[in-house]
Design brief:
Length: 454
């Protein structure tokens, strides 16, 4: 899109082109967030004025719109609504509405809460949930008040700086002329799902002394480690299950080291892999999973159901410490489970802790990959249709970001959606989960290939 956008109505006689304040990269990121769309500038407060009357003259009955505000502190933030402005006086239900703010180069968004109205379609200033008003009282300012439609932190969203430097509104239109090409080719068919399931059922580790691949899941609190096991277990059970305790309570729900076998159906035999779950990582020292405990897990020293103590690492008894663990007991692949919607918010302390863990794993020659969860929460384009995950440039940028921050190749970052609120299995969800598990088993083979069969 040209940085200048043609305006409408009587303004055309005086200023046919008005420049957008959005930088090209910012515009691209917002378009990626919304899908394959074009943005056309409808309203610019510094040109048209901050009056609500003028806003409605320019923006009413224009279909989906994106409001972008710039404040004196340098924050770029705003909101999206898929429903026309029409001064109807009604409260608007809009499940696609969201607020956003740029965290560095990446826009982070917050969707309207389920069952709540997205905005009040009045003749006044544009608002979201009657919590956030732009150009309030016909002035270059934002009004924030508490409410329940959107869950957001004013400090994080706009730095609590209410003074606007600019406010723009863009018409959002689907680009029907561009044929989207997936950045990864994945067959979204039941045939593909059944093929991967058959491969996993028939999988045999390369080393005969190893009967099952042991895969360790590591990640921050609330990233979805236990939910990933539940999801894999659901696929092979044939319905949604919740065997492992999952959820988010501010601190790790998992307090024990657990080794979870997965059966081939409820009455079937155990499949040839074990998913090992751990306590969640926390940025504070003395909280969450201890790095020394990870070393003990990797080398096969920690038993199933061992209860972690963040204040003191695991100490084996003399009999166990004198006997080296067998290859069967050791970890053969490590999977970092990372929340796609929080990658850009990862603290420096947590990133440093992950770097220390990665160095320890590298020293043992164990392959590593990333499972990127909650992709539906990270991108509304994907939430609407999981099939479009590999058409989303926004998800691609998240894959590249987590690859860079964790030092894992892009090809080893697999986006998935865990089963969380669904009651029935879904094909596209199954394909993503099974593709990730297939990649784990391939990495296990890479690791075991260095050992002689015995």
């Amino acid at each position: 899109m040209n940085r200048s956008a043609k305006m409408r109505t009587g303004w055309d006689y005086f200023m046919p082109y008005i420049s957008s304040d959005l930088k090209e990269e910012q515009r691209k990121q917002l378009c990626d967030l919304l899908g394959n769309v074009d943005l056309t500038l409808l309203y610019k407060a510094s040109v048209h004025g901050y009056k609500a009357l003028t806003f409605h003259e320019q923006c009413d009955n224009q279909g989906p719109t994106l409001l972008v505000a710039y404040n004196r502190s340098g924050y770029i933030f705003g909101g999206y609504t898929s429903v026309d402005y029409a001064q109807s006086g009604q409260y608007i239900a809009d499940n696609e509405a969201f607020l956003f703010t740029f965290q560095g180069k990446i826009p982070v968004y917050t969707k309207v809460n389920s069952g709540h109205y997205a905005r009040h379609d009045s003749g006044g200033a544009p608002n979201f949930g009657k919590q956030l008003y732009f150009c309030y009282n016909n002035q270059p300012e934002v009004l924030f008040q508490r409410g329940t439609s959107f869950s957001f932190n004013a400090e994080r969203l706009f730095g609590n700086d209410r003074d606007l430097a600019e406010c723009e509104v863009y018409k959002v239109k689907q680009n029907l002329n561009t044929k989207e090409k997936p950045w990864r080719n994945v067959p979204w068919t039941s045939i593909r799902r059944d093929e991967i399931m058959k491969m996993i059922r028939n999988y045999k580790p390369l080393v005969t002394s190893v009967s099952r691949a042991r895969i360790l899941m590591i990640g921050p609190v609330g990233a979805g480690k236990s939910s990933f096991f539940n999801s894999i277990n659901s696929v092979f059970t044939g319905h949604v299950t919740n065997k492992a305790i999952s959820g988010f309570a501010g601190t790790s729900v998992t307090t024990q080291f657990r080794t979870y076998p997965v059966k081939n159906g409820r009455e079937g035999k155990p499949l040839p892999f074990v998913l090992c779950d751990t306590m969640g990582l926390e940025e504070q020292s003395g909280a969450g999973l201890d790095i020394e405990d990870i070393s003990s897990i990797l080398q096969g020293h920690i038993p199933d159901r061992y209860k972690f103590n963040p204040g003191a690492p695991y100490e084996p008894d003399e009999q166990k410490s004198s006997r080296p663990a067998s290859l069967q007991e050791k970890i053969h692949c490590v999977v970092y489970v990372i929340d796609a919607s929080k990658i850009s918010l990862m603290s420096d302390k947590l990133e440093e802790k992950l770097a220390v863990i990665r160095r320890e794993i590298n020293s043992l020659g164990i392959p590593q990959m990333v499972v990127m969860t909650k992709v539906d929460e990270a991108c509304p384009h994907v939430e609407k249709d999981l099939y479009k995950i590999y058409l989303s440039s926004y998800i691609k940028s998240k894959v590249q970001e987590v690859s860079s921050r964790l030092g894992v190749p892009v090809s080893c970052v697999l986006p998935v959606k865990n089963y969380s609120q669904e009651l029935e299995l879904e094909l596209n969800c199954d394909v993503l989960l099974l593709t990730a598990l297939q990649q784990m088993l391939r990495l296990v083979d890479d690791y075991l290939d260095d050992f002689e069969s015995f």
